[in-house]
Description:
Layout: E1 11-15, E2 21-22, E3 38-42, H1 79-85, E4 94-98, H2 105-118, E5 123-127, H3 132-142, E6 149-153, H4 157-167, E7 171-175, H5 192-209, E8 213-217, H6 230-234, E9 237-242, E10 249-257, E11 265-271, E12 274-277, H7 281-285, E13 296-303, E14 306-318, E15 326-329, H8 333-347, E16 354-360, H9 372-384, E17 392-394, E18 397-398, E19 404-405, H10 410-419, E20 424-428, E21 442-446, H11 449-456
Amino acid sequence: MKNPPPKKSKTQFFCQSCGHQSPKWLGRCPSCGEWNQFVEEEVRLSPSASAAELKFDGAPLAIDDISATEGERELTGIAEMDRVLGGGIVGGSAILVGGEPGIGKSTLLLQMLHNMAATGLKVLYVTGEESAKQIRLRGKRIGASSKNLLILVEVDLENILRHIREIMPAAVVIDSVQTMYSDLLSSAPGSVGQVREASGRLILQSKKMCIPVFLVGHVTKDGSIAGPKVLEHMVDTVLYFEGDSGHAYRIIRSIKNRFGPANEIGVFEMRDDGLREVSNPSAFFLAERPEGAAGSVIVPSIEGTRPILIEIQSLVSPTNLGMPRRTAIGVDPNRVSLLIAVMDKICGLHLGNHDIFLNVAGGIRVGEPAIDLGIVSSLASAFLDRPIDSGTVVFGEIGLTGEVRGISQIEARVKEAARMGFTRSIIPKTQSRDKMPGEGMKIYRISSLRELMAHLF
């Protein structure tokens, strides 16, 4: 009797940008819109690991019978990192860290593990991109030297999981998840299937053993984390590194956090001996502010739970071009165009035949509507060539009819401005109390853009 022919392996096409699955090749991904991203991969027809490894063996429980204690958080020894994580590391949590190449992800995580190892905790740093000697050289540069800090150079997922079970570390860093692979899948490391397999099994192991795991992820050309989008849903916290090589600062921002506030930021300064936390970001961003310059204004912005003073600069110049240039760095360009139209209609400042360049000094990116009043003030100052008083801060949202709308955490913004030595605040009239915090601070409440011009100069 002849043996039956072997079954052909089933394949599917996966988008390498978002992980969208299709039975046939597509030129353009219907999910993320990227072109030429579909790659054929083998689909697993049998379980990749033992049944005991891929399940919790749980049973339904009444919600009243479940213990609700969060437990003590493990401090990283870096105050800015603890702030972003919501007060420290929660046991069994999975944290995804993304950022541009060379921005400092590996350096910061190695510093964090060194601080934890210095307290007597055993920690594990797994790398698939560098050799052990390279990690040692970086450790010397940043002062990381401890017997409790273990380095593992490995890309095989099964070996990594075995070492984690044997060592039982207090924290694990996987640098990076795109380099890890499982022999049970035939696709190449970094593919959607391998990233999903490695991440899922690492996160499951982390939950079962109550060991926090940090997954370092590569980013695509548009700045998002490479691999399937479901990866960001699987983890508990998503952290993004922001900054560029032209500035000394680095910002780590929590995009998602199940154990703390989202959009919280930590500010660091890149030095020769590693990243150093910045405890006073307002002073850091205003250190080189010009005095008496038209087009410059200070706006108190809220990043997570922290008020930070930022400087908005504008340059407005006449142009002979048929299409004036509009450049905005650090803010939404569409929002700037909207505010320019409101200024033209309400304030009579005709900027249609002017080139406009707007920048948030220091390279920081701000997205909240509270900076609307700062953008308009900066543009008006540059257009009229009249500097704004150096002791003034402005903030508020602007509507299409020129009204100034209230925003959140007004008291915290005014208090931060007073702490930094500012003496005047122009704020929305609505949602503001009669008595505001801040000794010696003069408060001007406005309800429309017409009132702004009366108090600005």
